[in-house]
Amino acid sequence: MNTLQNVSSEFYRVSDAFASKGSGVFLVFILSLSTLAFASIILRVSSTDRVHGRLPPGSFGFPFIGESIQYYASQKDMDALGWFKKKREKYGPLFKSRVDGFKTILLDSPGGWKFMYSEFDENVIRVLYPPTVRDLTGPDSPIIKHGRVHRVYKSFLLNHFSGVDVVHRYIPTIGKVAVDHINSLWLSRSDNSEVKAQELLQEFTFSIIGILILGITDSSVLEDLRPKFEEFVNGFVRVSFRLNLPGFQYHRSMKARSQIHEILQRSLVKRRAELEEGKATSTQDYLSVMLTHSNEDGYFYRDAEIRDIMLNLLWAGFESTATTMTMMMMHISRNPQVYDELIKEHAGIASKKAEGEALTLQELRSMKYTWAVMQETLRVSPSSADINRVAMVDLEYKGFTIPKGYRLTAAAGQSQWNPDRFPDPTKFDPSRFVTKTGTRSIEPYIFFPFGSGLRHCPGYELARINTMTLFHHLLRNVKWTMVYLEEKCRYRFLFYPEKGLPIRITKCKAY
User: Fold this and answer.
1) Any idea what the Cα angle at residue 171 is, between residues 167 and 172, rounded to 5°?
2) Is there a single domain that holds both residue 35 and residue 182?
3) 235: left (phi > 0), else alpha (psi -120 to 50), else beta?
4) Which residues make up the binding site for heme (predicted)?
């Protein structure tokens, strides 16, 4: 690892040690500043690594912070033509920088993305998350595991919960929850009521995931969990002092994690007793599956592992899908022609069905334009603005050396916001992904809304089905307008409207 990463690791270790002993906030703060000053001195004295080869062109910027401020500023407002464009003009499509304390190689697209995603040996290139993410998701979280442990668990998840064939069995349940959700939280309000779309959509996706993984049908349980998850997800920031002391976000988020674990453990104990008494079945939800099924190695997951797995699934259900739906509503509201095309597509489906009849898999698959709108939403407002890996060995790419310990980054600004890949990238245009005759093919390795390779999102199909179903019923019954048409977006591990997308809603019968 390079000098800064070693110093940063020592800083986190020492500050955590002081925090755990209950030392004063001021003392820890002084320690933090002293350590960072020490890191800067070391970087000035030893500003280069011993690299056997030629690094890509670029600049590491200031000591410690590097170019992190400019990098994240370019993401805040989905700045497709700013920082990244200047970098490409100066250095070419492949360049180095320093972000989040890591010496980083910003990979070109499609070549660099293919180079990163096509490497399946995690002893060569490995997934990389910020320390706070590793702490909050937990030591038994599947996302931080590597090698066979990760592969075997992902296979278990796909076979028993989120694989395409499994998800299709959930379609009736998802449809019922969507209708109930719209009736109770949207149609029950008077016309021109103002609501925050993000909050309502989080409630929908949280209900779905709560039912599917824990069998929770009691809304009071979800109401108890939700504020804890709101505090929990506030800790998912890129650079954070991991100070487990009152008054710091890290402390609040770790406390919320403990509270969620307590609730999950109670559910686990209760379900185990129900299974023993014959009051629950081994396949009624994912919790039952995990308690009664071994993985392909014959291993049964421990309670601690199950808690972290459930926590991660609830987090994904609470945050990512709901945020994508929120951004879809924002883009639809700003583009009336997109709304009109959606109404046309869904009216055609509804015209062939009886009132109240559930959607079928075939009908969900026929929603080509809706899927294009979702894809364009993920292009403009991706679930993640970058995907990061770390080089476990020295790598060679296009005549350049990428040293061990360097971060490899596939960034939206290099591809889906790049006018060389998507002309007029700031324009919201679903026709990039669909034609009048069907789906439009996209050049390989320029757009990965759900990741790729070993880390392809296992919840991809569930997110797609949830979104298609919800919008079919929402478009039919509700019209909305944004309260703040020019509402800005923020980036905190995900893109989301900074005010939560306040909208005014009116009941309708569009089809």
Assistant:
1) 140
2) no
3) alpha
4) 457
User: Looking at the structure, do residues 17 and 144 belong to the same domain, yes or no?
Assistant: no
Are 302 and 446 in a shared domain? yes
385/474 same-domain check: yes
Flag whether 508 is marked binding: no
Phi-psi region of 311 (alpha: psi -120 to 50; beta: other; left: phi over 0): alpha
Supply the range of the domain harboring residue 8. Answer: 1-47
Tokens of 216: 């929770």
Using the 3D structure, point to which of 9, 26, 47 is the last residue of a domain.
47
Indicate if 369 and 310 belong to the same structural domain: yes
Residue bearing tokens 């703040």: 484
Beta-carbon contacts of 298 under 8 Å, excluding residues fewer than 6 positions away, are none
Query: What CATH number is given to the structural domain containing 405?
Result: 1.10.630.10
Mean per-residue pLDDT pooled into runs of 10, the chain (511 residues) = 45 43 47 50 48 92 88 69 88 95 95 92 91 92 92 96 95 98 98 97 95 90 89 79 88 96 96 98 97 98 97 88 96 98 98 93 97 96 89 97 97 90 94 86 89 88 97 98 92 84 98 95
Q: How many domains does the chain have?
A: 2
pTM over 0.85: yes
